[in-house]
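RECORD TYPE: inverse folding
INPUT: structure tokens
STRUCTURE:
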């Protein structure tokens, strides 16, 4: 088993272990979103998680490519 496939398997296991309903808002944003209703509160939470995860995915991809190119 190569190192890359081991990392991929570990990342997949980590994704399945993480809880499905993460709370991304601060307490003030949570109260404001709850006043709008359940659906907008969930949408706001999903948007915050999406915006927070995107830079990590981009940096992770760049780091992986850099590591792969220096592994020669």
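DESIGNED SEQUENCE:
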């Amino acid at each position: 088993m190569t190192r890359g496939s081991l990392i991929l398997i570990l990342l997949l296991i980590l994704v399945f272990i993480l809880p499905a309903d993460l709370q991304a808002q601060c307490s003030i944003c949570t109260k404001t979103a709850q006043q709008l209703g359940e659906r907008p509160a969930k949408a706001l939470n999903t948007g915050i998680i999406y915006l927070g995860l995107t830079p990590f995915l981009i940096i992770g991809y760049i780091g992986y490519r850099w590591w792969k190119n220096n592994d020669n």
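NOTES: The mean pLDDT is 81.
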